[in-house]
Amino acid sequence: MSKIWDLAIAALIGAVVSGTVDLVFEHLKGEFNGKSLIEIIRNIWWRIILYIGIGLTVGLLGWSLIDPLYQKPLFMFDQSTQSWEPLLNPTDAAIKTSWDLSAKALRAEYNFAQTDPNNPRARATFYYDNFNDTWLGYRTFNLDITNPNPQQLEVTFSVDIDGCFYEFGNYRNLSPGESTLVNFNFTEPKFKTCKSPTVFDQTLDPAKNINRIYLIIGTNESPADFDGNILIDNVRLQKDVWFFRIALGIVVLAIVCLIAFIEYRYQKHFS
């Protein structure tokens, strides 16, 4: 169903853009009849820059106001680790968690040397217990991550529901020194579970109560025998806001067209 919606939206956008371009082209033919494209651009370059600047400014301002309204903060790490702990398991590389004062983030430390260096899926796992909430109404699990190490890392997440784990199948690669936003669309059928532990094709029901959250740090380095740490911040949920992006784009286009119309009428009046 989502693919049908994507195609319908793409077709709608294409029709609107095509119609707009056609109207603008017809208008320009009347205004600049007999002039080359270079001559037209040379005459109105400042208007093009002005309208692009207005569109970008209004769009960025509007999105900065709208986007936070459709997020649910889970862990901001402004003052503490918020009870995140390492998974103390002999087969796991997690060592400890601490609160990083300068970054105001969770510092998660690991040592892959304490695990089997020949393990192709060596990992360090950090968790939050007694979460006891649902993710109903949201689409993505987002977090800000910094990898300050010279080695490449990867990250994914897992949750426990009614004693059964749900692990997301796609790892996000983190280059050395990379600081980035990582998001996972947990509405996609990309989980393995305790009932289907060999394939990542199960769905997560966001209406079910989540008991525990895991962040799983892995690596492609071989052998995995190094230690280090990773910074985690601003863990939050995000609603699906594709329709607000389209609505915002339409509003920005309408504002730019209105300003262009006013400017055009003003030029006509005094010419």
CATH classification class of the largest domain: Mainly Beta
Largest sheet: 7 strands, antiparallel
How many runs of DSSP E, i.e. beta strands?
A: 13
What is the helix fraction of residues, given as a range?
A: 25-40%
The structure class reads alpha+beta
Shape: elongated
Task: Write up this protein.
With 271 residues, this protein is α+β, with helices and mostly antiparallel strands. It folds into two domains: 2-70 and 243-269; 76-239, Jelly Rolls. Helix content is 32%, strand content 30%. The protein is built from three helices and 13 strands. The protein has helices spanning 2-31, 37-66, 242-269, and strands at 71-75, 85-86, 94-100, 105-111, 123-128, 140-146, 153-161, 164-168, 172-174, 179-185, 191-193, 212-218, 227-238. The strands form two sheets. Strands 2, 5, 7, 8, 9, 11 and 12 form a seven-stranded antiparallel β-sheet that branches. Strands 1, 3, 4, 6, 10 and 13 form a six-stranded antiparallel β-sheet that branches. A hairpin with a 2-residue loop joins strand 7 and strand 8 (164-168). Helix 2 (37-66) packs across helix 3 (242-269). The longest helix is centred in the N-terminal third of the chain and has 30 residues, at 2-31. The protein starts with a helix and ends with a helix.
List keywords for this structure.
alpha+beta; 2 domains; single chain; Jelly Rolls; six-stranded antiparallel β-sheet
